[in-house]
Amino acid sequence: MALASVHDVAAYILRNCGEMTAMKLQKLVYYCQAWSLVWDERPLFRAPIQAWANGPVIPALYREHRGQFKVAKWPRGDAQRLGKDARETVDAVLRYYGKRTAQWLSDLTHAEAPWREARVDIPEGERGSAEITHAALHEYYSGLPDRG
Q1: What is the pLDDT along the chain (148 residues), one digit of tens a residue?
Q2: Exposed, middle or buried, 83 (CB in 10 Å: 0-12/13-18/19+)?
Q3: Torsion over CA of 35, 93, 55 and 80, rounded to 10 degrees?
Q4: Which residues 6+ apart lie within 8 Å of 1 measured at CB?
Q5: Model-level pTM greater than 0.90?
Q6: Residues with Cβ < 8 Å from 141, sequence gap 6 or more?
């Protein structure tokens, strides 16, 4: 099965959870990628994730929701493109993380190694575009208790 696009994942999340803040959507998509690398041993999507000052951000999503506080639907993606394994992974992530607030998710990402290590040479609060690698995500999240 071909990889879904990051836009397909965003569309699937919004279809299943409804309107949410753009920040919460970013964090949920981030966790979907991380857990796909652990559970399915493959990326969910190809778009890079960067360690911005306010946490992990997928620039491809940011370009679409920039300037919006809340998003309700994602016209660029197709939720139907997610295969069975991808849907199961996203559903498990949503069960664990989906009821959390955007701020809780943001605080969690700031406390975790992938974001912190990607920003190790960037002063706190400064802009940065260091990539959070698949290897860093897999290494850190595979060491955590299963969130599924």
Answers
A1: 578 999 999 999 999 999 999 999 999 999 999 999 999 999 999 999 999 998 999 999 999 999 999 999 898 999 999 999 999 999 999 999 999 999 999 999 999 999 999 999 998 889 999 999 999 999 999 998 776 6
A2: middle
A3: 90
A4: 83, 85, 86
A5: yes
A6: 34, 35, 37, 38, 114
